[in-house]
Protein backbone atom coordinates (compact mmCIF):
# COMPACT_ATOMS: atom_id res chain seq x y z
CA UNK A 1 0.00 0.00 0.00
CA UNK A 2 1.36 3.41 -0.88
CA UNK A 3 -0.38 5.17 1.96
CA UNK A 4 0.46 4.65 5.62
CA UNK A 5 -2.28 2.82 7.50
CA UNK A 6 -3.68 5.04 10.21
CA UNK A 7 -4.98 2.39 12.55
CA UNK A 8 -5.90 4.57 15.50
CA UNK A 9 -8.28 6.61 13.37
CA UNK A 10 -10.23 3.45 12.50
CA UNK A 11 -10.61 1.99 15.98
CA UNK A 12 -13.79 3.85 16.77
CA UNK A 13 -15.41 2.35 13.68
CA UNK A 14 -14.76 -1.17 14.94
CA UNK A 15 -16.07 -1.21 18.49
CA UNK A 16 -18.90 -3.61 19.23
CA UNK A 17 -19.86 -3.93 15.56
CA UNK A 18 -16.80 -6.15 15.05
CA UNK A 19 -18.15 -8.62 17.58
CA UNK A 20 -21.33 -9.32 15.64
CA UNK A 21 -19.90 -9.18 12.15
CA UNK A 22 -20.55 -12.81 11.16
CA UNK A 23 -22.84 -15.65 12.08
CA UNK A 24 -21.32 -18.63 13.92
CA UNK A 25 -19.24 -21.15 12.00
CA UNK A 26 -19.63 -24.92 12.10
CA UNK A 27 -18.02 -26.86 14.91
CA UNK A 28 -15.29 -28.06 12.61
CA UNK A 29 -14.29 -24.49 11.97
CA UNK A 30 -13.86 -23.70 15.63
CA UNK A 31 -17.20 -22.18 16.62
CA UNK A 32 -18.19 -22.28 20.24
CA UNK A 33 -19.25 -20.23 23.21
CA UNK A 34 -18.94 -16.49 23.47
CA UNK A 35 -16.95 -16.76 26.70
CA UNK A 36 -14.12 -14.26 26.82
CA UNK A 37 -10.93 -15.05 28.69
CA UNK A 38 -8.39 -12.32 29.23
CA UNK A 39 -6.95 -13.93 32.33
CA UNK A 40 -3.37 -14.56 33.32
CA UNK A 41 -0.71 -12.60 35.09
CA UNK A 42 2.05 -10.51 33.57
CA UNK A 43 5.50 -12.04 33.20
CA UNK A 44 8.59 -10.68 31.49
CA UNK A 45 11.44 -12.77 30.09
CA UNK A 46 14.54 -11.70 28.25
CA UNK A 47 16.44 -14.04 25.95
CA UNK A 48 19.82 -15.15 27.27
CA UNK A 49 22.75 -15.62 24.92
CA UNK A 50 23.04 -19.14 23.50
CA UNK A 51 26.55 -20.54 23.26
CA UNK A 52 27.97 -20.16 19.77
CA UNK A 53 25.47 -17.50 18.67
CA UNK A 54 25.32 -13.74 18.66
CA UNK A 55 22.41 -11.86 20.15
CA UNK A 56 20.07 -10.45 17.52
CA UNK A 57 20.33 -6.95 16.08
CA UNK A 58 17.32 -4.68 15.82
CA UNK A 59 18.67 -3.11 12.60
CA UNK A 60 18.24 0.44 13.84
CA UNK A 61 14.76 -0.09 15.29
CA UNK A 62 14.08 0.41 18.98
CA UNK A 63 11.04 0.42 21.21
CA UNK A 64 8.20 -2.06 21.66
CA UNK A 65 6.08 -4.14 19.29
CA UNK A 66 2.82 -5.16 20.99
CA UNK A 67 1.48 -8.40 19.52
CA UNK A 68 -1.92 -9.77 20.43
CA UNK A 69 -1.60 -13.58 20.42
CA UNK A 70 -4.70 -15.74 19.89
CA UNK A 71 -4.32 -19.49 20.49
CA UNK A 72 -6.21 -22.30 22.25
CA UNK A 73 -4.20 -22.90 25.42
CA UNK A 74 -6.88 -24.88 27.27
CA UNK A 75 -9.31 -27.65 26.41
CA UNK A 76 -9.03 -30.74 24.24
CA UNK A 77 -6.98 -29.02 21.52
CA UNK A 78 -4.62 -27.06 23.72
CA UNK A 79 -1.66 -28.97 22.22
CA UNK A 80 -2.34 -27.20 18.94
CA UNK A 81 -1.98 -23.86 20.67
CA UNK A 82 1.02 -25.05 22.64
CA UNK A 83 3.05 -26.11 19.63
CA UNK A 84 2.09 -22.93 17.77
CA UNK A 85 3.31 -20.79 20.67
CA UNK A 86 6.41 -22.91 21.24
CA UNK A 87 7.32 -22.55 17.56
CA UNK A 88 6.77 -18.78 17.72
CA UNK A 89 8.85 -18.63 20.90
CA UNK A 90 11.64 -20.55 19.17
CA UNK A 91 11.64 -18.14 16.23
CA UNK A 92 12.00 -15.14 18.52
CA UNK A 93 14.69 -16.92 20.54
CA UNK A 94 16.69 -17.80 17.44
CA UNK A 95 16.66 -14.18 16.28
CA UNK A 96 17.73 -13.09 19.78
CA UNK A 97 20.48 -15.69 20.07
CA UNK A 98 18.81 -17.24 23.10
CA UNK A 99 16.69 -20.14 24.29
CA UNK A 100 12.87 -20.43 23.90
CA UNK A 101 11.19 -19.04 27.01
CA UNK A 102 7.54 -18.37 26.24
CA UNK A 103 4.99 -20.36 28.22
CA UNK A 104 1.74 -21.46 26.59
CA UNK A 105 -0.45 -19.57 29.02
CA UNK A 106 -2.48 -16.39 29.06
CA UNK A 107 -0.94 -13.14 30.19
CA UNK A 108 1.78 -10.81 28.98
CA UNK A 109 5.26 -12.11 28.19
CA UNK A 110 8.13 -10.17 26.63
CA UNK A 111 11.08 -11.26 24.49
CA UNK A 112 13.85 -8.79 23.66
CA UNK A 113 15.69 -8.90 20.34
CA UNK A 114 18.40 -6.25 20.11
CA UNK A 115 16.82 -2.94 21.09
CA UNK A 116 13.23 -4.06 20.48
CA UNK A 117 10.89 -5.58 23.05
CA UNK A 118 8.28 -7.95 21.61
CA UNK A 119 5.45 -7.73 24.11
CA UNK A 120 3.09 -10.67 23.62
CA UNK A 121 -0.44 -10.40 25.03
CA UNK A 122 -1.53 -14.05 24.97
CA UNK A 123 -5.24 -14.88 24.98
CA UNK A 124 -7.02 -18.25 25.07
CA UNK A 125 -9.40 -18.69 22.11
CA UNK A 126 -10.65 -22.07 23.40
CA UNK A 127 -10.81 -23.06 19.70
CA UNK A 128 -13.92 -20.88 19.32
CA UNK A 129 -14.49 -18.41 16.49
CA UNK A 130 -16.79 -16.31 18.68
CA UNK A 131 -14.24 -16.14 21.50
CA UNK A 132 -11.40 -15.38 19.08
CA UNK A 133 -13.32 -12.49 17.55
CA UNK A 134 -14.18 -11.03 20.93
CA UNK A 135 -10.61 -11.31 22.19
CA UNK A 136 -9.17 -9.85 18.98
CA UNK A 137 -11.50 -6.88 19.21
CA UNK A 138 -10.47 -6.30 22.82
CA UNK A 139 -6.77 -6.48 21.92
CA UNK A 140 -7.23 -3.89 19.19
CA UNK A 141 -9.59 -1.46 20.91
CA UNK A 142 -8.47 -1.71 24.55
CA UNK A 143 -4.86 -2.90 24.39
CA UNK A 144 -3.85 -0.95 21.26
CA UNK A 145 -1.73 -3.79 19.86
CA UNK A 146 0.44 -3.15 16.81
CA UNK A 147 -0.48 -6.48 15.21
CA UNK A 148 -2.19 -9.81 15.83
CA UNK A 149 -0.75 -13.32 15.60
CA UNK A 150 -2.30 -16.76 15.85
CA UNK A 151 -5.56 -18.66 15.35
CA UNK A 152 -5.64 -22.44 14.99
CA UNK A 153 -9.21 -22.70 13.77
CA UNK A 154 -9.65 -21.72 10.12
CA UNK A 155 -13.14 -20.45 10.86
CA UNK A 156 -11.76 -18.20 13.58
CA UNK A 157 -8.96 -17.00 11.29
CA UNK A 158 -11.46 -16.04 8.61
CA UNK A 159 -13.69 -14.32 11.15
CA UNK A 160 -10.89 -12.27 12.72
CA UNK A 161 -9.51 -11.31 9.32
CA UNK A 162 -12.87 -10.02 8.08
CA UNK A 163 -14.29 -8.41 11.18
CA UNK A 164 -11.26 -7.20 13.12
CA UNK A 165 -7.97 -6.99 11.21
CA UNK A 166 -9.36 -5.55 8.01
CA UNK A 167 -11.85 -3.24 9.72
CA UNK A 168 -9.29 -1.85 12.18
CA UNK A 169 -6.33 -1.85 9.72
CA UNK A 170 -4.26 -4.00 12.08
CA UNK A 171 -1.82 -6.50 10.51
CA UNK A 172 -2.66 -10.16 11.20
CA UNK A 173 -0.15 -13.01 10.96
CA UNK A 174 -2.25 -16.19 10.85
CA UNK A 175 -0.89 -19.48 12.11
CA UNK A 176 -1.37 -22.38 12.14
CA UNK A 177 -4.96 -22.31 10.76
CA UNK A 178 -4.61 -24.33 7.56
CA UNK A 179 -7.65 -23.98 5.30
CA UNK A 180 -6.47 -22.78 1.89
CA UNK A 181 -9.42 -20.38 1.66
CA UNK A 182 -7.99 -18.08 4.34
CA UNK A 183 -5.44 -16.78 1.84
CA UNK A 184 -7.20 -17.69 -1.41
CA UNK A 185 -10.67 -16.13 -1.07
CA UNK A 186 -11.20 -12.40 -1.61
CA UNK A 187 -13.26 -11.92 1.56
CA UNK A 188 -10.57 -13.14 3.95
CA UNK A 189 -7.33 -12.28 2.15
CA UNK A 190 -5.98 -8.76 2.51
CA UNK A 191 -2.84 -6.67 2.18
CA UNK A 192 -2.80 -6.78 5.98
CA UNK A 193 -3.28 -10.55 6.39
CA UNK A 194 -0.24 -12.87 6.20
CA UNK A 195 0.37 -16.55 6.74
CA UNK A 196 3.79 -18.20 7.01
CA UNK A 197 2.20 -21.50 8.09
CA UNK A 198 1.62 -24.18 5.48
CA UNK A 199 -1.95 -24.88 4.39
CA UNK A 200 -4.21 -27.65 3.09
CA UNK A 201 -3.60 -26.72 -0.54
CA UNK A 202 0.12 -27.25 0.05
CA UNK A 203 -0.64 -30.67 1.57
CA UNK A 204 -2.78 -31.65 -1.38
CA UNK A 205 -0.71 -30.20 -4.18
CA UNK A 206 2.41 -31.89 -2.82
CA UNK A 207 0.72 -35.19 -2.09
CA UNK A 208 -1.17 -35.20 -5.35
CA UNK A 209 1.97 -34.70 -7.39
CA UNK A 210 3.73 -37.50 -5.54
CA UNK A 211 0.83 -39.92 -6.06
CA UNK A 212 0.62 -39.07 -9.76
CA UNK A 213 4.33 -39.03 -10.54
CA UNK A 214 5.93 -41.50 -8.15
CA UNK A 215 3.32 -44.19 -7.44
CA UNK A 216 1.53 -46.78 -9.55
CA UNK A 217 -1.89 -45.44 -8.54
CA UNK A 218 -3.98 -44.32 -11.51
CA UNK A 219 -7.44 -44.02 -9.89
CA UNK A 220 -8.35 -42.35 -6.60
CA UNK A 221 -11.45 -41.95 -4.43
CA UNK A 222 -11.47 -38.76 -2.34
CA UNK A 223 -12.92 -38.53 1.18
CA UNK A 224 -13.03 -35.41 3.33
CA UNK A 225 -14.60 -33.89 6.42
CA UNK A 226 -17.61 -31.75 5.58
CA UNK A 227 -16.16 -28.36 6.56
CA UNK A 228 -13.49 -25.99 5.26
CA UNK A 229 -10.48 -28.14 6.14
CA UNK A 230 -11.78 -31.35 4.54
CA UNK A 231 -13.19 -29.58 1.49
CA UNK A 232 -9.90 -27.79 0.89
CA UNK A 233 -8.00 -31.09 1.03
CA UNK A 234 -10.38 -32.83 -1.38
CA UNK A 235 -10.73 -29.93 -3.82
CA UNK A 236 -7.00 -29.38 -4.11
CA UNK A 237 -6.21 -33.08 -4.46
CA UNK A 238 -8.88 -33.30 -7.15
CA UNK A 239 -7.44 -30.36 -9.10
CA UNK A 240 -3.86 -31.63 -8.98
CA UNK A 241 -4.61 -35.30 -9.62
CA UNK A 242 -6.84 -34.54 -12.61
CA UNK A 243 -4.20 -32.20 -14.04
CA UNK A 244 -1.68 -35.02 -13.69
CA UNK A 245 -3.94 -37.53 -15.48
CA UNK A 246 -5.13 -39.52 -12.44
CA UNK A 247 -8.75 -40.67 -12.63
CA UNK A 248 -11.01 -39.46 -9.79
CA UNK A 249 -13.54 -42.29 -9.43
CA UNK A 250 -15.57 -40.62 -6.66
CA UNK A 251 -15.59 -38.21 -3.75
CA UNK A 252 -17.58 -38.04 -0.55
CA UNK A 253 -17.79 -35.58 2.34
CA UNK A 254 -18.82 -36.88 5.77
CA UNK A 255 -19.42 -35.23 9.16
CA UNK A 256 -16.61 -35.08 11.72
CA UNK A 257 -16.56 -38.25 13.79
CA UNK A 258 -18.18 -40.33 11.04
CA UNK A 259 -17.74 -44.05 11.80
CA UNK A 260 -19.70 -46.11 9.24
CA UNK A 261 -16.72 -46.64 6.96
CA UNK A 262 -17.15 -50.20 5.77
CA UNK A 263 -19.83 -49.32 3.22
CA UNK A 264 -17.97 -46.28 1.92
CA UNK A 265 -14.72 -48.20 1.52
CA UNK A 266 -16.64 -50.92 -0.30
CA UNK A 267 -18.01 -48.23 -2.62
CA UNK A 268 -14.49 -47.01 -3.33
CA UNK A 269 -13.33 -50.53 -4.11
CA UNK A 270 -16.31 -51.16 -6.39
CA UNK A 271 -15.57 -47.88 -8.21
CA UNK A 272 -12.12 -49.20 -9.04
CA UNK A 273 -10.09 -47.01 -6.70
CA UNK A 274 -6.44 -47.96 -6.39
CA UNK A 275 -5.91 -45.29 -3.77
CA UNK A 276 -7.95 -43.22 -1.36
CA UNK A 277 -7.27 -39.81 0.18
CA UNK A 278 -8.60 -38.91 3.61
CA UNK A 279 -8.94 -35.24 4.48
CA UNK A 280 -9.63 -35.71 8.20
CA UNK A 281 -8.36 -34.89 11.66
CA UNK A 282 -8.12 -37.11 14.73
CA UNK A 283 -11.91 -36.86 15.17
CA UNK A 284 -12.48 -39.12 12.15
CA UNK A 285 -9.23 -40.84 11.13
CA UNK A 286 -9.29 -43.64 13.77
CA UNK A 287 -12.61 -45.02 12.54
CA UNK A 288 -11.43 -44.88 8.93
CA UNK A 289 -8.18 -46.69 9.73
CA UNK A 290 -9.97 -49.30 11.84
CA UNK A 291 -12.33 -50.20 9.00
CA UNK A 292 -9.47 -50.21 6.49
CA UNK A 293 -7.26 -52.46 8.62
CA UNK A 294 -10.11 -54.86 9.40
CA UNK A 295 -11.24 -55.08 5.78
CA UNK A 296 -9.89 -56.75 2.67
CA UNK A 297 -8.90 -53.78 0.54
CA UNK A 298 -6.14 -53.45 -2.02
CA UNK A 299 -5.92 -49.68 -2.30
CA UNK A 300 -3.39 -47.38 -0.63
CA UNK A 301 -4.26 -44.58 1.80
CA UNK A 302 -2.64 -41.20 1.07
CA UNK A 303 -2.87 -37.90 2.89
CA UNK A 304 -0.84 -35.76 5.24
CA UNK A 305 1.27 -36.63 8.28
CA UNK A 306 -0.50 -35.06 11.25
CA UNK A 307 0.52 -34.06 14.76
CA UNK A 308 1.73 -36.27 17.59
CA UNK A 309 -1.89 -36.60 18.79
CA UNK A 310 -3.12 -38.23 15.57
CA UNK A 311 0.03 -40.31 15.14
CA UNK A 312 -0.46 -41.65 18.65
CA UNK A 313 -4.03 -42.74 17.92
CA UNK A 314 -3.26 -44.23 14.50
CA UNK A 315 -0.11 -45.87 15.85
CA UNK A 316 -2.14 -47.44 18.64
CA UNK A 317 -4.56 -48.88 16.10
CA UNK A 318 -1.65 -50.32 14.14
CA UNK A 319 -0.23 -51.86 17.31
CA UNK A 320 -3.58 -53.45 18.12
CA UNK A 321 -3.90 -54.83 14.61
CA UNK A 322 -0.31 -55.91 13.98
CA UNK A 323 0.90 -56.60 17.52
CA UNK A 324 3.66 -55.08 19.60
CA UNK A 325 6.34 -54.12 19.04
CA UNK A 326 5.67 -52.43 15.74
CA UNK A 327 8.39 -53.26 13.23
CA UNK A 328 9.15 -52.00 9.75
CA UNK A 329 8.48 -55.50 8.44
CA UNK A 330 4.93 -55.37 9.80
CA UNK A 331 4.30 -51.94 8.27
CA UNK A 332 5.73 -52.76 4.84
CA UNK A 333 3.05 -53.60 2.31
CA UNK A 334 0.23 -52.41 4.57
CA UNK A 335 -0.88 -49.75 2.08
CA UNK A 336 -0.68 -46.87 4.55
CA UNK A 337 1.23 -43.92 3.09
CA UNK A 338 3.57 -42.42 2.17
CA UNK A 339 2.22 -39.13 3.46
CA UNK A 340 3.16 -35.51 2.88
CA UNK A 341 4.33 -33.40 5.77
CA UNK A 342 4.32 -29.63 6.20
CA UNK A 343 7.14 -30.04 8.72
CA UNK A 344 8.44 -32.57 11.19
CA UNK A 345 11.66 -32.36 13.16
CA UNK A 346 13.57 -34.98 11.11
CA UNK A 347 12.74 -33.70 7.61
CA UNK A 348 15.42 -30.99 7.40
CA UNK A 349 19.14 -31.16 8.13
CA UNK A 350 20.54 -27.66 8.41
CA UNK A 351 22.09 -25.43 11.05
CA UNK A 352 18.89 -23.52 11.83
CA UNK A 353 16.74 -26.63 12.17
CA UNK A 354 19.32 -28.40 14.32
CA UNK A 355 19.39 -25.43 16.73
CA UNK A 356 15.58 -25.28 16.61
CA UNK A 357 15.15 -28.96 17.51
CA UNK A 358 17.72 -28.84 20.33
CA UNK A 359 16.31 -25.65 21.86
CA UNK A 360 12.69 -26.81 21.54
CA UNK A 361 13.35 -30.19 23.15
CA UNK A 362 15.34 -28.60 25.98
CA UNK A 363 12.63 -26.00 26.65
CA UNK A 364 9.46 -28.03 26.17
CA UNK A 365 10.39 -31.73 26.32
CA UNK A 366 8.93 -32.39 22.86
CA UNK A 367 10.31 -32.45 19.35
CA UNK A 368 8.98 -29.72 17.06
CA UNK A 369 5.71 -30.88 15.51
CA UNK A 370 3.63 -30.18 12.41
CA UNK A 371 2.75 -26.53 13.10
CA UNK A 372 6.04 -25.34 14.54
CA UNK A 373 8.09 -24.46 11.47
CA UNK A 374 5.34 -22.16 10.21
CA UNK A 375 5.02 -20.30 13.51
CA UNK A 376 8.82 -20.16 13.99
CA UNK A 377 8.94 -18.53 10.56
CA UNK A 378 6.09 -16.17 11.49
CA UNK A 379 8.14 -14.85 14.42
CA UNK A 380 11.35 -14.75 12.40
CA UNK A 381 9.65 -12.80 9.63
CA UNK A 382 8.18 -10.22 12.03
CA UNK A 383 11.62 -9.56 13.53
CA UNK A 384 13.12 -9.35 10.04
CA UNK A 385 10.40 -6.88 9.01
CA UNK A 386 11.16 -4.69 12.04
CA UNK A 387 14.87 -4.81 11.27
CA UNK A 388 14.44 -4.05 7.56
CA UNK A 389 11.93 -1.24 8.08
CA UNK A 390 13.67 0.19 11.13
CA UNK A 391 10.22 0.65 12.63
CA UNK A 392 7.99 -0.91 15.29
CA UNK A 393 4.76 0.40 13.72
CA UNK A 394 2.31 -2.22 12.46
CA UNK A 395 1.89 -0.53 9.08
CA UNK A 396 5.63 -0.52 8.46
CA UNK A 397 5.96 -4.15 9.56
CA UNK A 398 3.21 -5.15 7.13
CA UNK A 399 4.85 -3.23 4.30
CA UNK A 400 8.16 -5.01 4.90
CA UNK A 401 6.48 -8.43 5.05
CA UNK A 402 4.95 -8.14 1.57
CA UNK A 403 6.98 -10.24 -0.84
CA UNK A 404 9.59 -10.98 1.85
CA UNK A 405 11.89 -13.97 1.58
CA UNK A 406 12.43 -15.03 5.20
CA UNK A 407 16.11 -15.48 6.02
CA UNK A 408 15.94 -17.73 9.10
CA UNK A 409 13.58 -20.74 8.95
CA UNK A 410 13.68 -24.39 10.06
CA UNK A 411 13.53 -25.49 6.42
CA UNK A 412 16.76 -23.59 5.77
CA UNK A 413 17.96 -20.14 4.83
CA UNK A 414 15.56 -18.16 2.60
CA UNK A 415 13.16 -21.16 2.53
CA UNK A 416 9.86 -19.23 2.88
CA UNK A 417 8.67 -16.41 0.61
CA UNK A 418 5.45 -14.41 1.04
CA UNK A 419 3.68 -14.35 -2.33
CA UNK A 420 2.72 -10.83 -3.31
CA UNK A 421 -0.62 -11.86 -4.79
CA UNK A 422 -2.03 -13.28 -1.53
CA UNK A 423 0.53 -12.91 1.32
CA UNK A 424 0.73 -16.70 1.74
CA UNK A 425 4.26 -17.95 2.24
CA UNK A 426 5.36 -20.77 -0.04
CA UNK A 427 7.91 -23.32 1.13
CA UNK A 428 9.14 -26.80 0.31
CA UNK A 429 7.15 -29.84 1.40
CA UNK A 430 8.36 -33.39 1.95
CA UNK A 431 6.91 -36.89 1.56
CA UNK A 432 7.73 -39.61 4.10
CA UNK A 433 6.82 -43.19 4.91
CA UNK A 434 5.28 -44.42 8.16
CA UNK A 435 7.96 -46.02 10.36
CA UNK A 436 8.14 -47.14 14.00
CA UNK A 437 9.31 -44.39 16.32
CA UNK A 438 13.08 -44.57 16.79
CA UNK A 439 14.40 -45.11 20.31
CA UNK A 440 16.28 -41.81 20.20
CA UNK A 441 12.99 -39.90 19.81
CA UNK A 442 10.70 -41.97 22.03
CA UNK A 443 11.00 -39.66 25.05
CA UNK A 444 10.16 -36.52 23.06
CA UNK A 445 7.63 -37.97 20.56
CA UNK A 446 4.76 -39.73 22.32
CA UNK A 447 3.51 -41.82 19.40
CA UNK A 448 4.38 -45.35 18.20
CA UNK A 449 4.89 -44.16 14.61
CA UNK A 450 6.77 -41.25 13.05
CA UNK A 451 7.71 -39.96 9.59
CA UNK A 452 10.70 -41.60 7.95
CA UNK A 453 13.49 -39.60 6.43
CA UNK A 454 12.10 -37.82 3.36
CA UNK A 455 11.48 -40.02 0.32
CA UNK A 456 10.68 -36.99 -1.86
CA UNK A 457 10.83 -33.21 -1.74
CA UNK A 458 8.33 -30.93 -3.46
CA UNK A 459 9.80 -27.59 -4.52
CA UNK A 460 8.34 -24.44 -3.02
CA UNK A 461 7.47 -23.29 -6.55
CA UNK A 462 5.03 -26.22 -6.87
CA UNK A 463 3.36 -26.30 -3.47
CA UNK A 464 1.00 -23.31 -3.45
CA UNK A 465 -2.01 -22.34 -5.56
CA UNK A 466 -0.74 -20.30 -8.54
CA UNK A 467 -1.94 -16.74 -9.01
CA UNK A 468 -3.82 -17.63 -12.20
CA UNK A 469 -5.41 -20.89 -10.96
CA UNK A 470 -9.19 -21.33 -10.68
CA UNK A 471 -8.86 -21.82 -6.92
CA UNK A 472 -7.06 -18.51 -6.36
CA UNK A 473 -9.58 -15.74 -5.80
CA UNK A 474 -7.20 -13.32 -4.10
CA UNK A 475 -5.30 -10.66 -6.05
CA UNK A 476 -3.65 -8.03 -3.89
Automatic annotation (TrEMBL):
<keyword id="KW-0732">Signal</keyword>
<protein>
    <submittedName>
        <fullName>ABC transporter substrate-binding protein</fullName>
    </submittedName>
</protein>
<feature type="compositionally biased region" description="Low complexity">
    <location>
        <begin position="32"/>
        <end position="56"/>
    </location>
</feature>
<dbReference type="InterPro" id="IPR028081">
    <property type="entry name" value="Leu-bd"/>
</dbReference>
<dbReference type="InterPro" id="IPR028082">
    <property type="entry name" value="Peripla_BP_I"/>
</dbReference>
<dbReference type="InterPro" id="IPR051010">
    <property type="entry name" value="BCAA_transport"/>
</dbReference>
<feature type="region of interest" description="Disordered">
    <location>
        <begin position="27"/>
        <end position="61"/>
    </location>
</feature>
<feature type="domain" description="Leucine-binding protein">
    <location>
        <begin position="64"/>
        <end position="435"/>
    </location>
</feature>
<dbReference type="Pfam" id="PF13458">
    <property type="entry name" value="Peripla_BP_6"/>
</dbReference>
Amino acid sequence: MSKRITRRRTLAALGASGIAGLAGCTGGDGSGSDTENNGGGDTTTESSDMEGTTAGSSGGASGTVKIGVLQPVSGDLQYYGQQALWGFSSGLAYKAGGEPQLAAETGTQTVTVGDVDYELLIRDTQFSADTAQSLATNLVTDEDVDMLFGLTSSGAATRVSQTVAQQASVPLMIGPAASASVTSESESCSELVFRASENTAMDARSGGRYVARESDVSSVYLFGADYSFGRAVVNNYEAVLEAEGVDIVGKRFVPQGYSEWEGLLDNAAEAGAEGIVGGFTVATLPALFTSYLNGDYDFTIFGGFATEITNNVVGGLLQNQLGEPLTQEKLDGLGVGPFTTRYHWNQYDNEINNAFVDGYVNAYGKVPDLFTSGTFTAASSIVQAVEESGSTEGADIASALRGMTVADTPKGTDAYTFQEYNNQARSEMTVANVVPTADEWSDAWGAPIQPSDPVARISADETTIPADADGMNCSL
